[in-house]
């Protein structure tokens, strides 16, 4: 594993998906300890999809060392996005996290803030979640929530959270949460918007697999084309941005050597 500084973000290349989850778990614990020490709670917006599944399982595992290091009663779980399905649906990001992590560790139910995507009106589900965020983070008008950690994945089409190519939500600057029609999936998604995603103290992308290599190169080293590659829209204003990628996904990157060889 080596740390390479690419343009405006850190890239950490690890050998494989297993090491990706291990490093992500270490980051999770580190950020949780830091946040709880500083503010008494740790707020995280979780990624959905398949890449983070093994991370969530690892965090809950009683054979790994992470579980007992996390002050679970002080962690508040949110979601970066959700499919427009009920919470018990196989496609639900909430269900995926509930099965692998939340049902396995002592998180108080009131610390789990899921997107109520069972609402037949996805716009109302988005509005409801926006109110959850405003209330939890005690936000005045024009203020954005600041998560301690945002976990993101990246699709091979360059989407992240539910910011899909050529959708209006990529340019949303007013709302915290939005519903977005995803043509190619013939469904709505509910997602945090770029201003919220870019306001986090720490943002970590988890990208694994050779099928993402060409897109990862375009996102990190190609021309800025956020409508085509929405993952490019993630440029935290103040927080840190780490791309945790495995070697298969990183194979087309023109990686610079680590600046200080140390
Ligand atoms: O709801 C989702 O699916 C995620 O939020 C989405 O943005 C995901 O992170 C990417 O699609 C990558 O998915 P994989 O990890 O399955 O490749």
Automatic annotation (TrEMBL):
User: Which reaction equations make up its catalytic activity?
Assistant: 6-phospho-D-glucono-1,5-lactone + H2O = 6-phospho-D-gluconate + H(+)
The organism's superkingdom is given as Bacteria
Q: What class of enzyme is it?
A: hydrolase
Matching Gene3D superfamilies, A to Z?
A: 3.40.50.1360
Q: Which Pfam families match?
A: Glucosamine_iso (PF01182)
**Pathway assigned to this chain's UniProt record:** Carbohydrate degradation; pentose phosphate pathway; D-ribulose 5-phosphate from D-glucose 6-phosphate (oxidative stage): step 2/3
Keyword check for Hydrolase: yes
Q: InterPro entries under this entry?
A: 6-phosphogluconolactonase_DevB, 6PGL, Glc/Gal-6P_isomerase, NagB/RpiA_transferase-like
Enzyme Commission number = 3.1.1.31
Q: Which UniProt keywords apply?
A: Hydrolase
Domain Glucosamine/galactosamine-6-phosphate isomerase, chain residue ranges per copy? 16-243
A GO MF term: 6-phosphogluconolactonase activity
Q: Which GO terms describe its biological process?
A: carbohydrate metabolic process; pentose-phosphate shunt
**Family affiliation:** Belongs to the glucosamine/galactosamine-6-phosphate isomerase family. 6-phosphogluconolactonase subfamily.
What is the stated purpose of this protein?
A: Hydrolysis of 6-phosphogluconolactone to 6-phosphogluconate.
Q: What name appears for this protein in its UniProt entry?
A: 6-phosphogluconolactonase
Query: Which organism does this sequence originate in?
Result: Scytonema hofmannii PCC 7110
């Amino acid at each position: 594993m080596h740390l390479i500084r690419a343009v405006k973000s850190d890239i950490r290349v690890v050998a494989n998906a297993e090491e990706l989850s291990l490093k992500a778990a270490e980051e999770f614990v580190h950020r949780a300890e830091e946040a709880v020490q500083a503010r008494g709670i740790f707020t995280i917006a979780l990624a959905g999809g398949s890449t983070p599944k093994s991370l969530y399982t690892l965090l809950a595992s009683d054979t790994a060392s992470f579980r007992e290091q996390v002050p679970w009663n002080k962690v508040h779980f949110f979601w970066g996005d959700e499919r427009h399905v009920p919470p018990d649906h196989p496609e639900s990001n909430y269900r995926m996290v509930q099965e692998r992590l939340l049902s396995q560790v002592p998180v108080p139910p009131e610390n789990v803030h899921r997107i109520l995507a069972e609402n037949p009106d996805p716009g109302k589900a988005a509005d409801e979640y926006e109110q959850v965020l405003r209330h939890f983070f005690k936000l005045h008008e024009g203020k954005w929530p600041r998560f301690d950690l945002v976990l993101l994945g990246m699709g091979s089409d360059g989407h992240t959270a539910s910011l899909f190519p050529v959708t209006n939500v990529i340019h949303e600057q007013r709302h915290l949460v939005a519903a977005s029609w995803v043509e190619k999936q013939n469904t709505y998604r509910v997602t945090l918007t770029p201003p919220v995603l870019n306001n986090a103290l720490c943002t970590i992308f988890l990208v694994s697999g050779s099928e993402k290599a060409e897109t990862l190169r375009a996102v990190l080293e190609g021309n800025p084309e956020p409508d085509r590659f929405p993952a490019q829209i993630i440029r935290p204003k103040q927080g840190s941005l780490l791309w945790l990628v495995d070697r298969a996904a990183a194979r087309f990157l023109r990686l610079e050597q680590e600046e200080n060889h140390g």
